[in-house]
Design brief:
Elements lengths: L2 E8 L3 H12 L1 H8 L1 E10 L3 E4 L6 H11 L9 E2 L3 H7 L4 E4 L11 H10 L3 E4 L2 H17 L4 E2 L10 H9 L4 E7 L2 H11 L4 H10 L8 H4 L2 H14 L10 E2 L7 H9 L2 E11 L4 E11 L11 E8 L3 E8 L3 H21 L1
Parallel strand pairs: 1-2, 1-5, 5-6, 6-7, 9-11
Antiparallel strand pairs: 2-3, 3-4, 8-10, 8-12, 10-11, 12-13
Bound molecules: L-homoserine.
L-homoserine binds next to α8.
Length: 347
């Protein structure tokens, strides 16, 4: 007998649609192999509309409405028109899936959504970096008080289990430094520029492929990677970083000429994020670096990301995998839900 999880989704862009596709394609596998019956009971998107049914919405119907009409507004469902706040209060969902756009200055509106859901006794899964980079300790306390879980796997390296690896496997080994290519969009752009494409065309392609943020300035100016450095440093190195602690330079000043020059020297440009313990305090940065072709990060191409955890007991451990994408990030929510299920079975 599988356990029913009703989920309510805020934000029906790339990630929301990717998640819905996975839930449609993998429903039987999740049910039979993992014992979870995951049903979407509400979807709320500022531009595409809002639909809800406590008995469950057909994922195929949601996706075909987007494909045919570009929104959810003509669907005939039990409830329509709820805003995010009303949806959290009324949908009867067990889990809020917060996928709205990331605001790294205030975390809003996602931060308020997440607090409301936790205080309502709902678990939360989010790929939104804003609330995690800005207020994770507070959110963790609220979750604890309400006896619910927060899943954040998708905030770093999409569905590649970078946070799970750090948290479950490496924390006890003493993490002293974390370094990696942590933004898929910029890595894709730099690779395409190397292949001769213009910066702007490469950025447009990254948007079309679902890699970029709703506002891609966050990607190209390095702030998205900086938010990930903040999340990693705070989760695994006992730091209390804010974005202003990260010395951050993006890639927008890198020209086709710079990329060609690097190629002539047998080098690649990579946007590299680092957080490390120092003799006093820490260092944290995001900056483009020219790496030689035999550098471990040189072969990380397209929207692939890589993270190296340097540890006291095991030395360096590197994980390579997708850093962005519809299905890739949607899958992170599945990981979060399975973790919530596992911990509920352990109680
Ligand atoms: N815009 C982000 C990236 C998405 O390109 O890496 C995943 O966080």
């Amino acid at each position: 007998m599988s356990k029913l999880y009703k989920i309510a989704i805020i934000g029906f862009g790339n990630v929301g649609q990717g998640l819905t596709k996975i839930l449609s394609d993998k429903y039987v596998l999740l049910n039979e192999r993992f014992g979870v019956d995951i049903r979407i009971v509400a979807v709320c998107d500022l531009y595409k509309g809002s639909v809800a049914d406590p008995d469950g919405l057909d994922p195929k119907m949601l996706l075909s409405s987007i494909e045919l009409a570009g929104d959810l507004k003509n669907l005939n469902t039990k409830y329509t028109g709820w805003n995010a706040k009303e949806m959290i209060a009324n949908s009867g969902a067990d889990i809020l899936v917060e996928l709205a756009y990331t605001d790294l200055k205030t975390g809003e509106p996602a931060l308020s959504h997440v607090k409301q859901a936790l205080n309502n006794g709902m678990h939360v899964s989010m790929t939104n970096k804003g609330p995690v980079a800005l207020a994770f300790p507070e959110l963790r306390d609220i979750a604890k008080q309400n006896n619910v879980q927060i899943g954040i796997e998708g905030t770093v390296m999409s569905g590649t289990p970078s946070l799970n690896l750090g948290n479950e496997m490496l924390l006890a080994a003493g993490i002293t430094k974390i370094q990696g290519v942590l933004n898929g969009t910029t890595n894709y752009i730099l690779g395409e520029m190397e292949a001769g494409l213009d910066y702007q065309i490469a950025l447009t392609q990254a948007q079309e492929l679902g890699y970029a943020e709703a506002d891609p300035t966050g990607d190209v100016d390095g702030h998205d990677a900086a938010a990930k450095i903040v999340i990693l440093g705070n989760l695994f190195m006992d730091l209390a970083l804010t974005l202003s602690d990260v010395d951050c330079t993006g890639i927008s000043h890198i020209s086709t000429g710079d990329v060609a020059k690097a190629s002539l020297q047998n080098k690649h440009w990579k946007l590299i994020g680092t957080v490390a313990k120092a003799e006093t305090g820490f260092t944290a940065s995001v900056k483009p670096e020219m790496v030689s072709k035999n550098h471990p990060l040189a072969s990380i191409s397209g929207a692939t990301n890589a993270i190296t955890y340097s540890t006291e007991l095991l030395g360096d451990i590197t994980l390579i995998g997708p850093g962005a994408g519809r299905l890739e990030t949607g899958y992170a929510v599945i990981e979060d839900i399975l973790a919530i299920h596992k911990s509920s079975k352990a109680i």
